[in-house]
Amino acid sequence: MQETGLSAADIAEISGIAVTLVRRLLRPAGKRPARIHRATAEALLGIPLTSVFRRDRLLPGLLGAEKAAATLQDLAERGWPTSFLAAELDTSTHTVAAIRSRERRRLTLDLDRKVQRLAALLFASQPTDHGIAAHRSRRARTAALQRAPLVPPRSPDMAHQPEAAS
């Protein structure tokens, strides 16, 4: 009888977790990490056994990160520093940057909701209203605008528009 289980690479691809971490977790009991981050556990526990045949669907509790990425980029272009956004979202600056730059394809439903709620609040105010110094806001805006050409278009329609002649 042939086994049709998931490989470490399959689990990593489906869950969005690094393959190295998946391999560490698959080690024998004495050699695996003592603690596992909650988001990692949720991503792994959310993998249905039939997911090998349904790779086109998102996992329960996870969604595509495109909307959050566009929102975070827009906030940065308005002068909101990554460190401020990370603190308000109760996550790391690395996570905010990875979502914004579209390195993360999926994120938890909870984090997506936090991003959208925070954006609704911040779009109605200015960085100075929240105690952010003008020079930090300018730095965030400048970095976001420099990064903007590197970020893929926000909608498929934008990809088909001809570029202006220079």
Account of the protein in words:
The chain is mainly α and 166 residues long. Helix content is 51%, strand content 4%. The protein has helices at residues 8-15, 19-25, 38-45, 66-77, 82-89, 93-100, 109-123, 134-147, 156-159; strands at residues 62-64, 106-108. The relative contact order is 0.11. Mean pLDDT is 79; it is low at 51-58 and 155-166.
Task: Find the count of extended strands (DSSP E, 2+ residues).
Answer: 2
Q: What is the global morphology? A: elongated
Give the N-terminus to C-terminus distance in angstroms.
64 Å
CA-atom Rg in angstroms: 19 Å
Give the ordered list of helices and strands. HHHEHHHEHHH
**SS element count, helices:** 9
Question: On the 0-100 scale, what is the average pLDDT?
Answer: 79
Spans of at least 5 consecutive residues with low confidence: 51-58, 155-166
Report strand order across the widest sheet. Answer: 1-2
Defining traits:
single chain; 166 residues; mainly alpha; two-stranded antiparallel sheet; 9 helices; 4% strand; disordered C terminus
Topology (SSEs and partners):
Elements: H1 8-15, H2 19-25, H3 38-45, E1 62-64, H4 66-77, H5 82-89, H6 93-100, E2 106-108, H7 109-123, H8 134-147, H9 156-159
Antiparallel strand pairs: 1-2
Summary of the model, kept short:
This protein has 166 residues and is mostly helical.
